[in-house]
């Protein structure tokens, strides 16, 4: 006569199976967590690469505006004027709390519009049109300019332009100009209006930014720098 399993043997077998199942589940759960962590790290790395790419593009297209600072940094916001298709635009990189953001103003062609866009960049509150969240978890950042033979704090006084820059005022209406014989001609030639000396663009910009992964340092030399 064949003898069956006792209750104790069944309980022991169930306990062993439960332990094995628990160990297996922990392994699967750990693999899933590791996959999620690796995926998040990879996504953040790709996003950071895209952000730095945009940073370098902005600096590569910098425009030495005669009306507003071509680039300036006040400790929280870096503002610059860059060339864009159809004109120029003001761009502001800003750290608000632990959020690194970029604001791009409208593309403009008129001097008055450029000045208005620069004024708007000095009054950013966060939710404006054109504002984009780049990265979260940023602890701090600092900007340095290459002037002369070394890096210096971007908030220190820079070198002044040796020669005043001039800007052409708007041309006079066609009705205000006439040809020598009294007939109407095209717009009258505009005279250059002198602009006061400005701070010269630096030859390079150094970005130092604190991230959860560590400190990122990026140097970009400016083609227009002297």
Describe this structure in words.
Residues 160-195 have low confidence and may be disordered. A hairpin with a 3-residue loop joins strand 1 and strand 2. A five-stranded antiparallel sheet has the order 1-2-3-4-5, with helices on both faces. Strands 7-6-10-11 form a four-stranded antiparallel sheet, with helices on one face. The N and C termini lie far apart (102 Å). It has helices spanning 7-60, 111-121; strands at 71-73, 77-84, 87-96, 99-104, 131-136, 140-147, 150-153, 166-167, 193-194, 204-211, 214-221. With 226 residues, it is of the alpha+beta class. It contains two helices and eleven strands.
List the helices and strands and how they pair.
Layout: H1 7-60, E1 71-73, E2 77-84, E3 87-96, E4 99-104, H2 111-121, E5 131-136, E6 140-147, E7 150-153, E8 166-167, E9 193-194, E10 204-211, E11 214-221
Antiparallel strand pairs: 1-2, 2-3, 3-4, 4-5, 6-7, 6-10, 8-9, 10-11
Top keywords for this entry?
single chain, 226 residues, 5-stranded antiparallel sheet, 29% helix, elongated
- How can the largest sheet be summarized? 5 strands, antiparallel
Strand order of the largest sheet: 1-2-3-4-5
Molecular shape: elongated
User: Number of helical segments?
Assistant: 2
Q: What's the β-strand tally?
A: 11
Helices and strands: which structural class? alpha+beta
- Helix share, percent: 25-40%
Work out the radius of gyration.
31 Å
H/E series, N to C? HEEEEHEEEEEEE
The proportion of strand residues reads 25-35%
Q: Provide the low-confidence segments as ranges.
A: 160-195
Q: Give the CA-CA distance, first to last residue.
A: 102 Å
Mean pLDDT: 78
């Amino acid at each position: 006569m064949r003898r069956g399993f006792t209750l104790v043997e069944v309980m022991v077998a169930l306990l062993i199976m439960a332990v094995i199942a628990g160990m297996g589940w922990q392994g699967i759960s750990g693999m899933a967590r590791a996959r999620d962590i690796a995926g998040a790290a990879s996504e953040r790395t790709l996003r950071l690469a895209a952000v730095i790419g945009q940073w370098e593009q902005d600096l590569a297209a910098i425009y030495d505006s005669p009306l507003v600072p071509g680039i300036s940094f006040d400790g929280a916001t870096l503002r610059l004027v860059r060339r864009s298709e159809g004109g120029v635009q003001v761009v502001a990189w800003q750290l608000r709390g632990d959020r690194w953001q970029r604001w791009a103003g409208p593309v403009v062609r008129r001097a008055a519009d450029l000045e208005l866009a620069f004024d708007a960049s000095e009054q950013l509150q966060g939710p404006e049109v054109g504002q984009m969240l780049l990265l979260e978890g940023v602890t701090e950042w600092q900007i340095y300019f290459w002037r002369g033979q070394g890096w210096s704090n971007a908030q220190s006084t820079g070198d002044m332009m040796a020669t005043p820059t001039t800007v052409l005022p708007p041309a006079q209406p066609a009705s205000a100009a006439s040809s020598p014989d009294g007939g109407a001609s095209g717009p009258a030639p505009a005279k250059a209006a002198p602009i006061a000396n400005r701070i010269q663009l630096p030859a390079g910009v150094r970005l130092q930014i604190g991230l959860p992964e560590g400190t990122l340092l990026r140097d970009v030399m400016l083609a227009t720098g002297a």
